[in-house]
From TrEMBL:
Family listed: Belongs to the ComF/GntX family.
Domain Double zinc ribbon, residue spans: 14-73
Classification of source organism: Bacteria, Pseudomonadati, Planctomycetota, Planctomycetia, Gemmatales
Domain of life where this protein originates: Bacteria
Name listed for the protein in its UniProt record: ComF family protein
């Protein structure tokens, strides 16, 4: 009874306030839990260009990138490789920018679930035991009202049916925003910026770190270093986009 009343009210609500796309505000009539119109969703999902398996940046069609690409070949990452939803442009870039305040939480969840749906086979192939979002420093989390890596990771975990723990890793200090720094400064500032917590149980497990963007890879590298020191068997990185 309650459920049918709920459905009726939901239907009425949709009639009076038709759902609109979170990115372009155009109305759409799909009965799905997603919050994007078909056109925005299609453009975000469509990432058909080849990417580097180590750092997930876009590479040319005939580039040999077995040992990484020009951007990452000289880097010594603690993570095994990186996967992405798409490149940092168009609606995906807009979505990532919009996620920076609290109203972006639904957007972050939507992107996580459409990504996990699209790449389900790839994620399952890696036999990941646990998803761990890159933690924000507590002060940044308070200002933002939520953590976007955590929202993305939890919605991916629901689709993949994989555990997700956002209290196994913590950021020990606040680091400056990355676009204000050179890559060398960034690496230096992030050194030992992450620590596993007492709850963390990653020994012999395969971990997928989740973040919104990957630039130099320094953040995922440092987080992976902390997890490997705690015994993780493998650490992979999953980011919405390579910037
Ligand atoms: Zn749209
Ligand atoms: Zn690369």
């Amino acid at each position: 009874m309650f459920s049918s009343l709920h459905e009726i009210f939901r239907g009425l609500d949709r009639l009076v306030y038709p759902p609109t796309c979170l990115l372009c505000s155009s109305p759409f009539d799909r009965q799905t839990s997603h919050s994007l119109c078909t056109s925005c969703e299609r453009s975000i999902i469509n990432d058909s260009v080849p990417t580097c398996r180590r750092c997930c940046s876009t590479i040319g069609p005939h580039v040999a990138a077995e040992d990484g690409c020009d951007k990452c070949r000289t880097e010594r990452f603690q993570f095994e490789g990186a996967m992405r939803l798409g490149s940092y442009d168009g609606p995906l870039r807009e979505a990532i920018i919009s996620m920076k305040d609290q109203s972006g939480e639904i957007l972050a969840e939507t992107l996580g679930s459409i990504w996990a749906g699209r790449d389900r086979e790839k994620f399952l192939f890696l036999a990941i035991d646990v998803l761990i979002p890159i933690p924000l420093h507590w002060s940044r989390r308070i200002v933002r009202g939520y953590s976007q890596p955590s929202a993305i990771a939890h919605s991916m975990a629901d689709v993949l049916n994989t555990p997700c723990h956002d209290n196994w890793l913590k950021r020990t200090r606040r680091t400056p925003k990355q676009f204000t720094q050179s890559p060398a400064m960034r690496r230096e500032n992030l050194k030992n910026a992450f620590q596993v917590t007492r709850r963390c149980q990653v020994k012999d497990r395969r971990v997928m770190l989740v973040d919104d963007v990957l630039t130099t890879g320094a953040t995922c590298h440092e987080a992976a270093r902390a997890l490997k020191a705690a015994g993780a068997a493998q650490v992979w990185a999953a980011v919405l986009a390579h910037r």
